Amino acid sequence: MTTSQKFGGNWTEEKLNIFTRYLDAYLIALQNQKFKKIYIDAFAGTGEIETRDGGQYLAGSAKRALASEKKFDHYYFIEADSQKAGELQDMINSEFPQMRRSVTIFCGDANDKLAGIISSVDWRFNRGLLFLDPYATQVHWTTLENVAQTKSIDVWYLFPFSALERMLPKNGKYDKWEDCIDRLLGDSGWREEFYKKDPQMTLFDLFPEPGQNDGERMVKDANPDHIKEYILSRLGTIFPCVSKHARIFRNSRNSPMFLFCFAIASESPKAQGLALRMADYILKNK
Ligand SMILES: C[S@@+](CC[C@H](N)C(=O)[O-])C[C@H]1O[C@@H](n2cnc3c(N)ncnc32)[C@H](O)[C@@H]1O
Q1: Residue 222 backbone class (left: φ over 0; alpha: ψ -120 to 50; beta: rest)
Q2: Tens of each residue's pLDDT in the chain, 286 residues
Q3: Whose CA is nearest to atom 17 of ligand 1?
Q4: Which domains, from first to last, does the chain contain?
Q5: InterPro entries per the record (predicted)?
Q6: Which helix (H) or strand (E) holds 229?
Q7: Given 3-state DSSP classes, what are the helix, strand and coil percentages for the chain, each rounded to the nearest 5?
């Protein structure tokens, strides 16, 4: 018996609807092009979802991609959990048996397996749609760089906004998260971007502890809008085109949980214009 995965909030369906609308539009836009079309779902899951809060049952990204009316030439699914990867294969065997030959499932880490897929494809003759849908900070910046250098992949990335915010404490004591944040954002600029010297002079500044220099205390100086703009600007350093209309998904207490971003690796102004028009239209209209 299969076990559906439980995760997400009420943004899960919204995320999947946005992504599926883009996927359908993408396949129509490329239908008369000479390129082969490749789908990559790097955090694929099982194809079935039960949301944790709403008790809803939804078709996951893998099932939605396979069920689209127009088809990709090949589908790559990556899933770290071997049981889930097995359930995904069972679902494909029973619900999409005619498509088995155009599907490859990799069990392992998304960063490693994606690097393998990217290097095995000749991107002069192929175009890709990539879904990065991690639970948290699993996507390495080097993976995004690798995707961007194909110049041929459109990517939807569910950026782990709340995980990043949790690693940026108000008191500037981010030491234990530094490596993780550097890996997530790809450089060290976030320290200056999100922190400033504490303007409040305290007794601790007048009588610093041994080893602590005068004036060294840092405090956070960043709100969610600022953090969102920084994430988009970071993506803009490697992708030639990034939607400004990334959607923030919030929990029931209105706290930002994820930032759903769209980026285009193509350098063709025509391809960028079309992809951005489709993505922005979907992101702007609920
Ligand atoms: C949010 S779920 C993805 C759901 C899927 N997109 C869907 O719509 O059904 C994240 C999935 O990534 C898997 N995962 C976690 N870490 C991973 C990693 N480093 N590489 C690949 N998959 C990973 C989890 O087991 C889980 O199934």
Answers
A1: beta
A2: 444 455 556 789 999 999 999 999 999 999 999 999 999 999 999 999 986 665 668 999 999 999 999 999 999 999 999 999 999 999 999 999 999 999 999 999 999 999 999 999 999 999 999 999 999 999 999 999 999 999 999 999 999 999 999 999 998 889 999 999 999 999 999 999 999 988 776 666 667 666 655 556 789 999 999 999 999 999 999 999 999 999 999 998 999 999 999 999 999 999 999 999 999 999 998 7
A3: 80
A4: 5-165+224-284 (3.40.50.150), 169-221 (no CATH)
A5: Tcm_partner
A6: helix 224-236
A7: 40, 20, 35
Cβ atoms 148, 122 nearer than 8 A: no
Q: Which residue is closest in CA terms to ligand 1's atom 26?
A: 45
Which numbered atom of ligand 1 lies nearest the CA of 8?
1
Structure tokens at 59: 């078709």
198: its two tokens: 């504490």
Q: Best mutation site among 11, 23, 43 for ligand 1, i.e. most ligand atoms within 8 A of its Cβ?
A: 43
